[in-house]
Amino acid sequence: MHAPNEKSTRPDNLSHHTLRGRLWRYGPLALWIGLIFFASTGNLSASNTSRFMRPLLLWLFPDISLSDLLFVNFLVRKAAHITEYALLALLAARAFLTSSHDKLRTKWFIAAFALVAVCALLDEYHQSFLGTRTSTIYDSLIDMCGGAFALALVLLWRSCRRSKAGGISPGDSPQRRRGMFGDR
C-alpha cells in the first residue's frame, strides 16, 4: 500500500487495491463511457435535439432565421462533442493517475488519450449504422481535440503544482518522483 514514511490522504477503504477503491477510480469513467454511447444512439440525433433547441432559441431570439437556427444547433452539437470528450479525458486521467499499476500511472497521458481516441472512433463507427445519425471522421477529430485539450490542461496543472512543490507533487508515487513523465 504505502511505504511507512509516506503519508496518504486517501482513506483506507479507498486504497488502490480494494474493490471500493477501484469502483471510486473507474466507476465514473465507465458510467461516462456508457453515457457517450447512449448519446450515440438516435435518441440524441440532430432532429431530436432540435426539438428542444428550436423553441429555446426562438424564445431567446424571436427574429432568428431558419438558417441561423440550424447553424446554432450545429455549433451546440459540436460544442457538446468537445465537452463530452474533454470530460472523458479528465475522468480517464483521474483514474489512471491513481491506478495501482505503475505503468498506467506513469503513462497516464498516453493511456487517457488512447481511450478518448478509441471511444471517439467507435462512437462514429456505431453511428454509421444508424439512419438518424451522420458518421464522419471529422467528429472523431473534434472529439479527440476536446480530449487532448483537457489532458493538456491536466498536464499543465500538474506541472505548475509540481514546480510550486519543489519539483514533486504530494501525490506522486516513488516511480513518478524519478522523472516528470516516467522517464528515468
Q: How many β-strand stretches?
A: 0
- Uncertain spans: 1-8, 177-184
SS strand fraction? under 5%
Query: Alpha-carbon distance between the termini?
Result: 23 Å
What is the H/E order?
HHHHHHH
- Overall radius of gyration: 20 Å
- Please tally the helical runs, counting DSSP H or I stretches of 4 or more residues: 7
Mean pLDDT: 80
Overall spatial form: elongated
Work out the helicity level.
55-70%
Main sheet summary: none
Which structural category fits the helices and strands? mainly alpha
Give a structural overview.
The chain is an all-alpha fold. Helices cover 68% and strands 0% of the residues. Helix 1 packs antiparallel against helix 3 (66-97), helix 3 (66-97) runs antiparallel to helix 5 and helix 3 packs across helix 6. The radius of gyration is 20 Å and the shape is elongated. It starts with 18 loop residues before the first helix and ends in a 6-residue tail after the last helix. Residues 1-8 and 177-184 have low confidence and may be disordered.
Provide the fold topology.
Layout: H1 19-39, H2 46-60, H3 66-97, H4 102-106, H5 108-127, H6 137-164, H7 174-178
In short:
By secondary structure, the protein is mainly alpha-helical. The chain contains seven helices and no strands.
Please name the defining characteristics of this protein.
disordered N terminus; 184 residues; 68% helix
